[in-house]
Design a protein that fits this description.
about 325 residues, mainly alpha, two-stranded antiparallel sheet, 14 helices, about 75% helix
Length: about 325
Amino acid sequence: MKTTTLISIGLGLAIVAALLIMPLYMARYSLYILSMWAVMTIAAIGLNLTLGYAGQISLAQGAFVGIGAYAAGILTTAHGWPLLSVLPLAALLCFVIGWGLGYPALRVQHHYLAFVTLAFSTLAFLIFRNEEWLTKGVYGIENIKRPIIFGWNTFRPLPFYYLCLAALAVTTALTWWIVHSPWGRAFLALRENPLRAQSLGIDTRRYTLMAFAIGSAFGGVSGVFYAPLVEFIEPGAFTLALSLNILLMVIVGGSGFFFGPFVGALIAVLLPEWLRFTKGYYLILYAVLVMILLVYSPKGILGFIEGWLADRRTRRASATRAAAEPSLRAETQS
């Protein structure tokens, strides 16, 4: 086994151990921030499938988080549904809506598609705000309880964090399977060259719709856990700003990289908290740091690391070849 592989495995195990052990010694607010990171990472993973792997831009991921959150809020508070019963329903609802939203992607691309998804995001916000009979409008839905699962009470911050982490683990495993399945390879072909993919017999129409639907379903799953995490939802939480923030997570982490959403969500959720010591300037500093990052690394953090490693390997190979040239020349002359 290669040294780099062993290092990667060791680093992965260390991160998993840290995510499991460190929260035992954290305060309530720190647990809340970590839970928010896990929830937002699920939404970013969905957008990464749509944008990073299939190449279809979407500004509607925040709307799907809102749909999942309102589904959880309405069904658990007004109808007494267990949270885990809401989960498949919210995912299916967002899958169907995402499939329908994918149809414009069959006819328009790039910034035109962005405008279509932007319109849907605005429509969803207006429904959340104006349909008071369903969503309670600007008054929001409060007292969204955290679940009890087979006797396991997640009311306190630490158990609910582990629930969010478990949901993230399941989402990660499912995404790994999708990316390494024929679906994932079809998504990559669709992103790189749709015409060539179609010439190879790939049903680009179906895979475009599938990319939107699966990414939207992950957004709904994120919303189901977002609602009991904050325990109060209102339309202002699901504006275009949330969709742009999730898009930022994907781009900053590295669009098309499997672990890009994890890194991007870490930056988007934790960096503003780390900069709060600057008081009123923390959002300005956050924006400046993100702009500097994207200027010097347009492919995101993982793209920068990959490029640096590739450059290092190239230099090492060149040095090895240069060192071997004298001996090769001597052998040739002899």
